Amino acid sequence: MSRPLRAVLLAAGRGTRMNSDRPKVLHEIFGRPLLDYPLVSLRQLGVKRPVVVVGWGKEEVLSHLPHGVVDSVTQTPQLGTGHAVQAARRKVGGFRGDLLVWPADMILLQKETLSRLLRGHRESGAAVTVLSSFRVDPTGYGRVLRRGGRVIGIREELDADEAEKRIHEVNTGVYVFEPRALFRALEKIRPKNRKKEYYLTDTVRLIDEAGGRVEALPYAPPEEAQGINSQADLASATRILSQKNILNHQRQGVTIVSPEQTFIAPEVSIGRDTVIYPWTFIERGVRIGRKCRIGPFARIRSGSVIEDGAVIGSFVEVVRSRIGKKVLAKHLTYLGDATVGAGTNIGAGTITANYDGLQVGDKAKTGAGAVLTRGTKIGKGRVFVGVPARPLNRDRSRGSRKS
Ligand code: UD1
Ligand code: CA
Question: Where are the alpha helices (DSSP H) in 88-126?
Answer without folding.
Answer: 89-92, 111-124
